[in-house]
Amino acid sequence: MAARYLNGLPEYFPVFCRIFYPESCEDRLLLPPGWVAQNGEQVPNECTLKMLNCLSWRVGVTKLVRGWLFETGWVQFVQSNRLHRHDVLIFTYHGSGVFMVKRFDTSGCMPDRDLHAPTYFETRQYLAHDFDYEDSYTDSSEGAATGVSSIPAFTVVLLASTIEMGLSIPIIFWMTNVTSEERNWRDALLVGDRSWTVKITSKDYEVQIRRGWRTFVSENQLVVENICKFELLPYDEVRFMVSIER
């Protein structure tokens, strides 16, 4: 389940660990049965795996009596992150289907590529694997195939720096779904029936929401650890429908 709260602050986020072995984990990943028993009640059928470099991948959760699996989309996650035998993966569940993932290699350290947003040329290598919005996943006991939402989206766990300085949009998301041209935007964030005008700047392969962001944060009473999902709506201008998990 999502984080438990004490006096308005998260008590803890549920965590599990897996060691990567290609022969058993390359095509799918089994979630620990004990973790599922304690925390799986509110885990949806479609989840997001997010690395510290702000790149994210959607995976389908196959829920069977014999175990729960990350399945649809898992291969893309493995290939894009170039997982190797004996890599240790730490999954922290932040609710709303969002898992923050940390990977430690055999040296005991996290690879640099996991910590920093990719350069333009590295991003081009990711594009072959990521953001396939027409996947399907297998649903629970009957194993029925259900379509995954086709709306492009990314999810952010808010940090103090994000609230104060502005939101960075993952460059791979922007290049895949909006434009690679360098230009300034003046567009909108929507929550329910309200909207906020913001300025999105794209320069040197960095995309940020700055002007208007602080007003959006203040009027929506956003705080550190809130989880925001940004869904790109089908308009000529850039409009994001924002869902907030507190």
Automatic annotation (TrEMBL):
Q: One matching Pfam family, short form?
A: B3
* Compartments in which it is found: Nucleus
Q: Which InterPro entries match?
A: B3_DNA-bd, DNA-bd_pseudobarrel_sf, Plant_B3_domain
Q: Which GO CC annotations does the UniProt entry carry?
A: nucleus
| The TF-B3 domain, residue ranges | 27-107, 194-246
Query: Which GO molecular-function terms appear in the entry?
Result: DNA binding
Keyword Plastid assigned to the entry: answer is: no
Print the keywords alphabetically: DNA-binding, Nucleus, Transcription, Transcription regulation
Does the keyword Iron belong to this entry? no
Q: Which SMART domains match?
A: B3
Coiled-coil stretches, from where to where?
none
Q: Which PANTHER family match?
A: B3 DOMAIN-CONTAINING, B3 DOMAIN-CONTAINING PROTEIN OS03G0621600-RELATED
Annotated protein name in UniProt: 60S ribosomal protein L7-like 1
Q: Which organism is it from?
A: Salvia divinorum
